[in-house]
Every structure is written in structure tokens, then in C-alpha cells.
Amino acid sequence: MILLIIIFILVLLFTMLPSYSGEITKRLSKFFLHVSDEELNLRSQVKELKTEQDTISMTDEFAKYAKIQRRIDKLMSQVKESNSTRMQKSSMLSLFVRIGIYVTQAITMLTLVFQYRNEPLLMFPSEWFYPLQKFVALPTGIPVPRSAHRLPLVDCLR
Description:
single chain, mainly alpha, 0% strand, rod-shaped, disordered C terminus
């Protein structure tokens, strides 16, 4: 009975864990994938150029305004490029987290199957599975006790 409860808890855990993989990935990416100093510097330069551009009248000093706009565009493309590489790394990390969850689940379940392959979790009356009794009892091969044939369902599940 304890084994049945342990398996239930593990199945429940491994069912819920993939839905939290996004949160796990966010925390891991905050830890491993930092915004570089170069990107922070580029962002601050863009902010400074935008404040400078806001002080300039577009109609009166169009050449100066356009020159600042080209510099802003150039810096923004560099920021987007570094951001896209970080996002690619984050998506790869998310993929590895999901794969890690599923591999851990598979290894845990296979370990349980091989470790407890000779212990039945539940014993049902053999007449429930009339043509397939031997196939259903395959991992253990334990025959159903004769007294179980006469017991009601509630007693068989204990």
C-alpha cells in the first residue's frame, strides 16, 4: 500500500512539474543568463540620444534630428541582436529543462518498475480477467489466492 501511495505521489509530481517548467527556466536564466554590461551601456546611450532628440525640433533642424535618429536605429539594432542571442539561449535552456524533467520521470519510473517488478500493487480476482489471467499477472506471476475469489471487491483492494 505504501508503494502505491509513493507511485501516486510521483505521478502527481511529474504531472504538475512540466507546467512549472517556465518558472524554473526563468529562475535559471536569471541565474545563468545575465544582461551584459555592453548591452546596458547601449541601452543607456539610446536613452541619452532619445532625450537629446526630444530637445531638437524636427522641422527646424531636420539634418541633426535625422543623424541622431540613425545613431539610435544603429544602437537599437545592436541591442536587439544581443537580446535575440540571449533569448535563443533562454529557449534552449527551457528545452533542456523540459527534457530533463521527462528524462528524470522516465528514469524514476523505470527504476521503480525494475526494483519492484516482483511485488503486485493490487490483486484482483482472476475471473475478472478470464481469458488473459496469465498475461495480466506477467510481471509477478503470483496466482490469486483462493480466498480472494469469495471476497467482495472492497476486501480484494486492501
